[in-house]
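Progress against Task 2.4 (sequence-to-structure conversion) is shown through the following example record, which the project officer requested during the mid-term review.
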Amino acid sequence: MNLSSLTPAKGSVKHSKRVGRGQGSGKGGTSTRGHKGAKARSGYSRKVGFEGGQMPLYRRVPKFGFKNINRVEYIGINIDVLNNLHETKNIENFDIEVLRQNGLLSGNDKVKILGRGELNAKINVTAHKFSESARKAIEEKGGTVSELDKKAE
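Structure tokens generated for the chain above:
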């Protein structure tokens, strides 16, 4: 066996249909495109969503809803999560970088600290926003709450 004797497996290679090469080929004349109509013409391409002239789905279905382009999305982190991190890793000062290192944030996420759960330790938290219950719970334990400056973000 050598490289010159290699051939593909029988039936694995199909030759393309050669159209428009005269009547004798059996694929001349209309070149398998049928008679007339847009699909028989050269350069034809159907628009996305075209349904043969029927009113397309994207125009039959009514529009609804509203997307506020000025909306600011916050990742919510509850104080029980912070309490758990304090107990397991002995972290007292929580800021954006610490939360990112512990897998609670990614990229440039903005953070809102929420008030679910119990807080058993004095912690210092720096975040973009705080709920009233979270702020109250942290300050009751003697911790500090500091919001990040909106202009410095």
